[in-house]
Amino acid sequence: MQELENELKEKERRLVRYRSAILQLADSAEPDEENKNKINREHLELLNDDLDPLQYVADNRNHPRAKSTLKTAMNMCSTESLKDSLSSFFRRRDSIPLPYTPSLQILISGKGIDQVHRLPYSMKVYEAQKRLAFFIFGNRSYPIKTGSLEQEFCKIFRLPVGVKFHTQELKINGNITKIYESIKPIIEETSFPLAVLQTGCYHKGYQNYDHEIVKSARELVIGESNREVNWFDLFTSLNNKIVHKMLDDKFFSEDDYLRFIENWSENGKEIGTCFSFGMNKKSRIRQILDRIRQDVVGVVTVGDKCLTVPMKSDSQGMIQISYGTNDYELTSLKLKIEVIPTNLT
């Protein structure tokens, strides 16, 4: 119990320093590098547009969004809020009765399903998770078939020993190599090669796209956006039949799209190969299509939303560039680049 108390006190002290650093940075004319580094070490990411939030606040102190960002940071770092969230631990430590009746809550949600069940708080949460997992997955003689399996950040699995899942789609939100090693024991070998592998939106840092489960997947869905990745080199190296980048973040420029199409034209791709890029602005798509019309040799306009480019390496196929609605929730539109037979036009 003393160890827990010391840990909580350290968290409180750290957040007080954190809040002080944010205030000092926001009130200073120039960014304080020491405070900036201090906060960055905590990995606070308040903006979802790949801008440095602290630099943004410092450079745009009077901008409404900067003020909102600072307010969010203050709310997150409030020691009062922290104390509220830890009140149950303090009460348990000091044997003070809770002002409410605690319950264990189970939420079941999905297509057409939204159920909440509450049970008496007679065991710890992880014990309840383990018991529920054994109730659902225990005593199975054969692998459990599931259309999609999702795993985030190497979380602990509390599953019966020997349980196996057969899946067609795997969603990994974190480091591919680490998470694959953690879930490998529970995935039936016949699941590979995967029909679909999806990487998450929240992974930061190097991602191993040379991993065997990436290379063997028929369809690869890329969720992350990272300015440090050379997206052109990555996309030209991928041999998956279908690749979808969930969000076009402009790290892949108009020039990159042109070079990408020319790479396919020169080196060839199997008919049916399709790469697509999620986008929110139709103007962005039209700018890319206009550049292709202007700069790519042999381009043919097919209607308002479609272009074709001949394959120099294969007379049986051609490259079609088009756009339409998106199947994924992050964006409403997608730009699609695919190889089709020449006799389809």
Please provide a written account of the structure.
This protein has helices at 2-27, 33-40, 53-59, 64-76, 79-93, 125-137, 176-183, 212-216, 231-237, 254-267, 282-295, and strands at 103-110, 113-120, 144-152, 165-173, 196-199, 219-222, 242-245, 274-279, 300-301, 306-310, 317-325, 333-341. Helix 1 (2-27) crosses helix 2. The relative contact order is 0.06. The chain is elongated, with a radius of gyration of 25 Å. Strands 3-4-5-6-7-8-12-11-10-9 form a ten-stranded mixed sheet, with helices on one face. Strands 1-2 form a two-stranded antiparallel sheet. The termini are far apart. The model is unreliable at 25-32 and 38-57 (pLDDT under 50). Strand 1 (103-110) and strand 2 (113-120) form a beta hairpin. It has three domains: 2-93, no CATH class; 102-137, no CATH class; 139-344, no CATH class. The protein is of the alpha/beta class and 345 residues long.
Helix content: 25-40%
Helical/strand content category = alpha/beta
The mean pLDDT is: 78
Strand order of the largest sheet: 3-4-5-6-7-8-12-11-10-9
Share of residues in strands: 15-25%
Poorly predicted regions: 25-32, 38-57
Overall geometry comes to: elongated
Alpha carbon gyration radius: 25 Å
C-alpha end-to-end distance: 73 Å
Order of helices and strands: HHHHHEEHEEHEHEHEHEHEEEE
What does the largest sheet look like?
Answer: 10 strands, mixed
Query: How many beta-strand runs?
Result: 12
Q: State the domain count.
A: 3
- Total helical elements: 11
Can you lay out the helices and strands and say which pair or pack?
Elements: H1 2-27, H2 33-40, H3 53-59, H4 64-76, H5 79-93, E1 103-110, E2 113-120, H6 125-137, E3 144-152, E4 165-173, H7 176-183, E5 196-199, H8 212-216, E6 219-222, H9 231-237, E7 242-245, H10 254-267, E8 274-279, H11 282-295, E9 300-301, E10 306-310, E11 317-325, E12 333-341
Parallel strand pairs: 3-4, 4-5, 5-6, 6-7, 7-8
Antiparallel strand pairs: 1-2, 8-12, 9-10, 10-11, 11-12
Helix pairs in contact: 1-2, 1-5, 3-4, 10-11
